[in-house]
Amino acid sequence: xxxxxxxxxxxxxxxxxxxxxxxxxxxxxxxxxxxxxxxxxxxxxxxxxxxxxxxxxxxxxxxxxxxxxxxxxxxxxxxxxxxxxxxxxxxxxxxxxxxxxxxxxxxxxxxxxxxxxxxxxxxxxxxxxxxxxxxxxxxxxxxxxxxxxxxxxxxxxxxxxxxxxxxxxxxxxxxxxxxxxxxxxxxxxxxxxxxxxxxxxxxxxxxxxxxxxxxxxxxxxxxxxxxxxxxxxxxxxxxxxxxxxxxxxxxxxxxxxxxxxxxxxxxxxxxxxxxxxxxxxxxxxxxxxxxxxxxxxxxxxxxxxxxxxxxxxxxxxxxxxxxxxxxxxxxxxxxxxxxxxxxxxxxxxxxxxxxxxxxxxxxxxxxxxxxxxxxxxxxxxxxxxxxxxxxxxxxxxxxxxxxxxxxxxxxxxxxxxxxxxxxxxxxxxxxxxxxxxxxxxxxxxxxxxxxxxxxxxxxxxxxxxxxxxxxxxxxxxxxxxxxxxxxxxxxxxxxxxxxxxxxxxxxxxxxxxxxxxxxxxxxxxxxxxxxxxxxxxxxxxxxxxxxxxxxxxxxxxxxxxxxxxxxxxxxxxxxxxxxxxxxxxxxxxxxxxxxxxxxxxxxxxxxxxxxxxxxxxxxxxxxxxxxxxxxxxxxxxxxxxxxxxxxxxxxxxxxxxxxxxxxxxxxxxxxxxxxxxxxxxxxxxxxxxxxxxxxxxxxxxxxxxxxxxxxxxxxxxxxxxxxxxxxxxxxxxxxxxxxxxxxxxxxxxxxxxxxxxxxxxxxxxxxxxxxxxxxxxxxxxxxxxxxxxxxxxxxxxxxxxxxxxxxxxxxxxxxxxxxxxxxxxxxxxxxxxxxxxxxxxxxxxxxxxxxxxxxxxxxxxxxxxxxxxxxxxxxxxxxxxxxxxxxxxxxxxxxxxxxxxxxxxxxxxxxxxxxxxxxxxxxxxxxxxxxxxxxxxx
Length: 938
Fold this sequence. Notes:
Elements: H1 3-8, E1 33-36, E2 42-47, E3 53-60, H2 74-82, H3 93-100, E4 104-109, E5 114-121, H4 125-137, H5 145-164, H6 171-179, H7 194-198, H8 202-212, E6 218-224, H9 228-239, E7 262-268, E8 275-282, H10 288-301, H11 307-315, E9 323-328, E10 333-340, H12 347-364, H13 368-384, H14 389-403, H15 409-417, H16 421-431, E11 438-444, E12 456-457, E13 508-511, E14 517-522, E15 528-536, H17 549-556, H18 566-575, E16 579-584, E17 588-596, H19 600-612, H20 618-635, H21 639-652, H22 666-670, H23 674-681, E18 690-695, H24 699-712, E19 733-738, E20 744-754, H25 761-772, H26 778-786, E21 790-797, E22 804-813, H27 817-829, H28 837-854, H29 858-870, H30 877-887, H31 890-900, E23 907-912, H32 914-922, E24 927-931
């Protein structure tokens, strides 16, 4: 899958810095300047002065498609290795220092490439060039045996978390092995096989680096608040001496074909629902047919009128939804049909329904209106991806490296817009109709009879986790001894630039005649607006014993109006290029959406219709209730969800709505009737509601548009009940939940702390930063970097009006469960005494600088408005929060830690394999109580 799809889950993306209200998607141009260094590195610069931040993205043209059988997973592994040490940067700086500067950083590897990226406040711009260039050109001499072994454990933990411990995690491996023949670069997964990884040597690492990490095999994009001429000089200084490297040959497209369909089944120990995938081989990225195939995917299942939705969901009621989409990579492509069916559904019946949908599509085709709707939605999607400098950098760097043209997205927009009905039917007939495919039937353990008839058992490699942690113990080890690479420049750490001043956006407020308050921020970087109506109540207004009513109502409200069927409403929204959704949280009910600013009036008319003229369609209610129960059944396969459900039940008790998931449980949702939703609907009142809006629209336009809604919506508010907190948990207790055969144990540790309105709420958030605030936190640095026990470890504070938890979370390899618990226990127990002046200054510097990038996107700005209205904060609250942080003394930090982060007050929830871990956790020294997957004591 191409990188932008892989990372952003988007099928369409564009970059620009200018527009007019009359512009269409194809009018946009990418503004950039490109030049090439003497070593072959291609550099693209993009100026965007809207925020004092800079994004840097370096893309290496090497992914898993350059590997060989027996050495799979190496491109991804090397990405991990690259974040360790380099010649001129202190050990561990890449993962630790960048967050401390107020920045963020990460990397990604996919079949065709590897990308490294950072976003930092403007003052750290040259520091990022220093770190990024040193990782690129000066890291290989620093690789040690200890670093190699430590990173192997981290990658193993990543695979366990994302593949081995996840339902349907092996599906990609099954498809790749059988769609692509042996020797094809896509025959193996990106993460590879663990035995290959375990066998990797330092010589392998050096060979890979020397072959693929030359400057001529990469593109560098710098986007943001920069000066072009000054940046050119800095790029020459920091990147100009990196060796060009050997010429890396071009890989030509290598599409595959199937002489027959191949059907496979796999019994998944974790899956609770049967899932069918059908994969048809298609075309590579940038192939002209790709754009028609993308639209075909939308036409087949992307709306309520689409044929597969009709046959699978509406008529046969076999699944909650259907997904069809095109996935193109550098060498080949796939058209994928994915259906996770309802419990106990025979997948043969699902396949029959798919074929019926194909027949309808072939006979009836589709109209101009459907094509227009999809293109309108793509136009809005286009603008949504313009609002951050990082996304601009991603698009520029990918199109340069894989197409040789940073501005190719303009052509992509034209090609997409030019797709005709004939194009869509042509690619359907060429790649899908009566064509061979790979199918996977992934079914719950013991339910092979649900698989497609004629399926063969799929072969996958499953790791056997060793019981003793010592067999995989790692350590920091000594630093490498080497002769530093000569340079004509001083490659020591540069100084910070001028401190960027964070300016909170100007907030305007108004009131409507019906009592609803309006909060707005005008921002005209893109021709979009985002809005949100927040109505207090949410799950707190669910009737007793029927948790899930508010959530189910939010789903039903999008299923048509009094004058529009569900399909007609969906089409009306789509033709505007808008999106509208309703959802419920613990304390609020939301109606939120996005639209082109030119279509705001028309979008709000639909919002008013959704809000005030519900359809109350009994058939849709029954379908949604069935889909919800399917989702709740699927949740039983997710160890993180199991841990969360148990934790909240233990902290709040079953009499408090916070102790029950907002979507309800199988027990509570079974009791819900449509009349319950109708009674709840009467409580949606404007009196205490707030309307939030951000984007390219004026205060006067917003108020004018909302007058009609204010006149029509006059429901009287109801009081929101208060619930007692009767926690059944006991501080200092460990609660264990069996998840048989788990390769990892999920750890969720916490206690109730305070409400977001508490005077100490900000202080507690500040005090947590050193412990678990991202990759620079002690939890991450110790459990992942130091020990290799996990892929990540964090702590935080939930934010609600209700008293909310302080929590610690991680997923650790199974045989490291006990050592991890001991490390966390000691770290929290000694946190106050180990928090000194250095930690205080580091916290202040990090959090203050984070604000320069924290509110860049429209969604982030909308979050500012939500905070102001919900928690009754002044419009200056961000500035006030900064001043509160600056005024904190070391004694203040220690007092907050001692009051809210005491280890003996924590409860521990562990979800893992009882057979191997129960006796281990008993050695932890705390009382152990076993729960079932619903949080009930056994």
